[in-house]
Write a structure and sequence with these properties.
heterodimer; A: 88 residues; mainly alpha; B: mainly alpha
């Protein structure tokens, strides 16, 4: 591989992390990105932390629906059921 | 993250709803509740109004259920009804639909990591870390602490960033779904997501670093 383009700097890499994770980097950019990671522990740590954040976000429990609202929606559903003949 | 619902599962769910199955209805309501409040919240003034809009949307969903033909997913159809209700309410509130608030602001150009953590121009290693990130201790990453910190960080974000990141990373939406329902471009979605995730990482880093070992 020819080194016609300069190496990515760490400062540039942190701005490309989302495009990288979203698989939206053009192939040559992705190559530069991955090349940088092969020798930069710090940026590997940065990327790893971003992945940890995403795993953490995926584990957030949504707030439960308030009981009043749940009851109101259920009442709406029962009205609808009566009106529509309840599944007949 | 809410579980993706397969096509077969969605057919069963739809059949159960049409048959008047309350459990099925409540399961659907619960699954989408957080995301519905978030999306509605982008168009109206307050949490209370967003709750109203969600309720109104469910009435619309039930009314239209016999017309739903499955050309889109049930989820997508529910959210398009929700967005219509939210926009209508936003207009009635004479709050113009805040699409502009979904455009990246100048602040959106701010760097993901403070420039003073990198070596300066002129340095042989200009642009490389001078204050690099330290790996987070496994024990803290694997505890519920990280999840709580991410949740706390999300609350500090500007609304558009918070909404996009929550829909993508908490609710597990695809980028296309976010673009469709918030009516934003793919590029714009990615800018908002990038700013949001970068700030959340920085927030977690600061808290894990500052608080030291537990």
């Amino acid at each position: 591989m020819t080194r016609s383009v300069p190496d990515l700097t760490c400062r540039e890499l942190v701005e490309l992390v989302t495009d990288y994770l979203e698989a939206r980097l053009p192939v040559d950019e992705r190559t530069r990105f991955e090349l940088h990671l092969t020798y930069c522990d710090w940026c590997r740590t940065y990327l790893e932390q971003m992945r940890q954040v995403l795993v953490g976000a995926g584990e957030i429990t949504e707030e439960a629906i308030e009981p009043e609202m749940r009851d109101a929606l259920l009442a709406t559903f029962r009205d609808w059921k009566r009106g529509s003949g309840g599944g007949s | 993250m809410s579980e993706p619902v397969g096509i077969a599962a969605e057919d069963r769910e739809l059949a159960a709803l049409r048959a008047g199955d309350e459990e099925a209805f409540l399961a659907l309501v619960n699954r989408h509740h957080g995301a519905m409040l978030r999306v509605a919240g982008m168009f109206v003034r307050s949490r209370a109004v967003a709750e109203d809009v969600v309720q109104e949307a469910w009435v619309g969903v039930l009314r239209g259920l016999h017309l739903f033909e499955g050309r889109s997913s049930l989820k997508s159809w529910i959210f398009s009804i929700l967005v219509n209700c939210a926009k209508a309410r936003g207009l009635r509130e004479s709050r113009t639909v805040p699409m502009s608030s979904l455009d990246p602001t100048p602040e959106e150009d701010a760097p993901s990591v403070s420039p003073d953590r990198f070596r300066e121009e002129g340095d042989r290693w200009a642009g490389h870390w001078s204050a690099p990130p330290e790996p987070w201790p496994d024990a803290r990453v694997e505890s519920s602490e990280l999840v709580a910190l991410v949740g706390e960080a999300l609350e500090t974000l500007p609304p558009a960033q918070r909404t996009v990141m929550s829909l993508r990373d908490v609710d597990g939406w695809e980028s296309g779904e976010v673009c469709e329902h918030l009516n934003i471009s793919e590029g714009n979605q990615r800018v908002l997501l990038h700013r949001a995730r970068s700030k959340v990482r920085a927030f977690v880093e600061e808290r894990l670093g500052r608080e030291g070992p537990p």
